[in-house]
Fold VOC family protein.
Amino acid sequence: MQVLALHHIAVIASDYERSKAFYADTLGFVLEAEYFRAERGSWMGKLALNGTYMLELFSFPDAPPRSSGPEALGLRHLAFAVADVAAARAELEAKGYACEELRHDPNTLKAMVFFRDPDGLPLELYEA
């Protein structure tokens, strides 16, 4: 088998509209398609970043919470590349999102900062 690329990332949100606004308005994803799946009582949105990366955003009634910390097994975090981590951190904080302190990757020395989406999913901004 030869994996060609990462196809999509799927996120289940407790409040579909709130998370859709976060990923679109705050992080710059573009909603390309949206479907209501009546048999599941579930929304599915396909959000693209720069026409390449796809985030599938779902809602499911009564989805159980998932532990994401401290350092729980499974997906650790999603990281997004930005040109200026400090400026992006300031923009997030101005919009009311709490961020950890700016730090530098000890291996690459690039700036990075961690924050969370509306459901507490750990996210990272990493210097491009």
